[in-house]
Amino acid sequence: MTTVEPDLDLLRAVLGRESARLADALRGDAAPLDRQVPGLDWTVGELASHLSSVYELFAGVVRGEHAPDADGGATEGGEVLRETVTAANRERVATVRFATGDEAADVLRAGARDLLDALHPGIDLTARRATPWYGPGATMPVGSLAALSVTESLVHGYDLDRALGRRARIADDAAAAAVPTVMSTMMPLLFDAKRVGDRRLGFEVRIRGGRPFVLRIADGRCRAEPAGASGSGEPVDCVISLTGAAALHTGFSRRPLWRAMATGGAFAFGRRPWLGPTFHTLFLRV
Q1: Where does the Mycothiol-dependent maleylpyruvate isomerase metal-binding domain start and stop, copy by copy (predicted)?
Q2: Ordered domains of the chain (ranges, CATH)
Q3: Can you list the pairs that 163-168 forms with residues at least 24 positions away whose Cβ atoms lie under 8 Å?
Q4: Considering the entire predicted model, what is its pTM?
């Protein structure tokens, strides 16, 4: 199941709007494909290659074109996931090349339309699909894949704007539609058990404008559960409040957490608020 099930209509609206904006930005001579993207190892063309490949891949997976693994298991840990995702990204960027910005825009737009068609109204967001690029035996709910496609679009839209010298920002409401689902899905997979050791910790994560969830860390594992879930009976140590944009900036290593806290985009409170500033260090970065 998905800990935080998203609103599919909202996700479709954000995905359609942001993918169209990205395609428009790539058209003509305004987006030289060989220009370096600030903070990344990719050029503009490679970023477009990555994102269009994500759309195409997710559309096929959502439609069930990739059969789930027999065991339906999870990945073998955060390190495996990070290595597998990095390799998959490298392969996709290397195999898809564009000659012009118009070609990149057309392919990206077509991939987004294909994904939107696959995410049709009425689709079962809890149905699991095989996601081998996240590690051996990995599966993920359709709702999480939909939310991931939105966060990919928002973050790389921000990257593209920076590369083209445009005003770069991530809208909080657009991010809040997807971030709670993505964080509650991915953070248990990226949990750094070696760093945490045998500590027992509980965090409630509140994305402003989105649904809250709880991360519980114990016995070398991390699990997500809905906030206020009955039967847990254990209070959290720290409550972390973030805007949708701040969550994406810090989660994708675009800005440090201290900057979000200094500008009001994030703050922590609760029994042990001092855990807030180090929260992000408990998880591996992809």
Answers
A1: 17-160
A2: 8-174 (1.20.120.450), 185-282 (3.30.1050.10)
A3: 163/31, 163/35, 163/36, 163/37, 163/38, 163/44, 163/47, 164/25, 164/30, 164/31, 164/35, 164/44, 166/25
A4: 0.89
